[in-house]
DNA sequence: CTCGGTTTTGCACTCAGTTGCAAAAGGTGC
DNA sequence: GCACCTTTTGCAACTGAGTGCAAAACCGAG
């Protein structure tokens, strides 16, 4: 139930076509909820059918650009969702399973993979830091909306830092740092 | 592709029936890869068909307990998987989307939900700490297998601590801590 | 204007995870 | 032994996400 609300949010920030949404997802919302263009088009169709968004006028046709905007019902649905209650989704971390498997059958070949993951996390961390420097020069003094957006980014930064530190620790445990 | 390997690992630690596996998942592997009994039975069937595990002798019958053990091919497959390369799965964090939605339509009702999440994370953290105190009195001096198992738990502890701290920070941002 | 490449939209299929439910065996009280 | 409850196994249908691919419109070169 998250993708439709992510799309509503993005459309409220700026009415867009499916392809624009896809591009914007790739550089912001997608960090915490990736989506392909196929998913997005499907969801736009459902949202339109549910009368939460509407396409700006023009003859509907395949291959023809369609710009969407959020209707009042959509805004209301989003507001409800913000206040709704939903449990955190279960953690699913294949790397933990692999460590556990390694504890049983031996850790042959594992260290290299851990280093690769550390590298990937480091790259993502650098990307987040860039965005932070560019878009949030003074988060503390900003209005609530901006402070919330910064909090999201801060979560990403914190997570990546955590994984990098943890991976380094495990590599130490394997005598391979 | 993770569940079958999780099951192989669990069966190597101790041959079990489907129901036993389900129970063991609930208190250990399931923290990082939850699975229902239906999933587990389905996967046991596939693993048996692939000749990676076998049921201990006895007439196969529905409703009748079947104990499984890992075959050499299964152990080999697991070893390969430990050394395999697999990208971290994309992050999917609905709470981040809700913050972002809140930045657009207002944060009405959000703080309560954040407190609830903080509470849930605190409970899980406490559970992890209990396990740590009970099962890992001296992780540093233990053999590699045990150190790896402790690293898994340490990841869980670190994650929960991180979320608790971050949620507290956001609540502060909302002027609601 | 028409041909070919690009953009934009969208369908169809697969796969993993979730939920609901039922069938077969085993155990317990009468 | 039989009536009933519990344990254990398993099927079936659904949902959300991922992948491949194609159709319609658009656009620039000649």
Automatic annotation (TrEMBL), chains A, B:
<dbReference type="InterPro" id="IPR036388">
    <property type="entry name" value="WH-like_DNA-bd_sf"/>
</dbReference>
<dbReference type="InterPro" id="IPR036390">
    <property type="entry name" value="WH_DNA-bd_sf"/>
</dbReference>
<dbReference type="InterPro" id="IPR018309">
    <property type="entry name" value="Tscrpt_reg_PadR_C"/>
</dbReference>
<dbReference type="Pfam" id="PF03551">
    <property type="entry name" value="PadR"/>
</dbReference>
<dbReference type="Pfam" id="PF10400">
    <property type="entry name" value="Vir_act_alpha_C"/>
</dbReference>
<feature type="domain" description="Transcription regulator PadR N-terminal">
    <location>
        <begin position="7"/>
        <end position="79"/>
    </location>
</feature>
<feature type="domain" description="Transcription regulator PadR C-terminal">
    <location>
        <begin position="91"/>
        <end position="174"/>
    </location>
</feature>
<dbReference type="InterPro" id="IPR005149">
    <property type="entry name" value="Tscrpt_reg_PadR_N"/>
</dbReference>
<protein>
    <submittedName>
        <fullName>PadR family transcriptional regulator</fullName>
    </submittedName>
</protein>
């Amino acid at each position: 139930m998250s993708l439709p609300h992510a799309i509503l949010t993005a459309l409220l920030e700026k009415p867009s076509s499916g392809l624009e949404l896809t591009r914007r997802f790739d550089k912001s919302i997608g960090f915490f909820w990736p989506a392909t263009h196929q998913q997005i088009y499907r969801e736009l169709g459902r949202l339109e059918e549910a009368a939460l968004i509407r396409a700006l006028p023009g003859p509907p046709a395949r291959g023809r650009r369609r710009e969407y905007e959020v209707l009042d019902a959509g805004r209301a649905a989003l507001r409800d969702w913000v206040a709704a209650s939903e449990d955190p989704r279960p953690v699913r971390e294949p790397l933990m399973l692999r460590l556990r498997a390694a504890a049983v059958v031996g850790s042959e070949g594992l260290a290299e993979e851990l280093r690769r993951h550390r590298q990937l996390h480091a790259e993502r961390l650098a990307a987040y830091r860039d965005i932070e420097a560019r878009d949030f020069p003074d988060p503390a003094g900003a209005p609530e909306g901006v402070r919330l957006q910064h909090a999201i980014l801060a979560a990403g930064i914190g997570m990546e830092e955590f994984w990098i530190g943890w991976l380094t620790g495990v590599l130490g445990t394997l005598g391979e740092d």
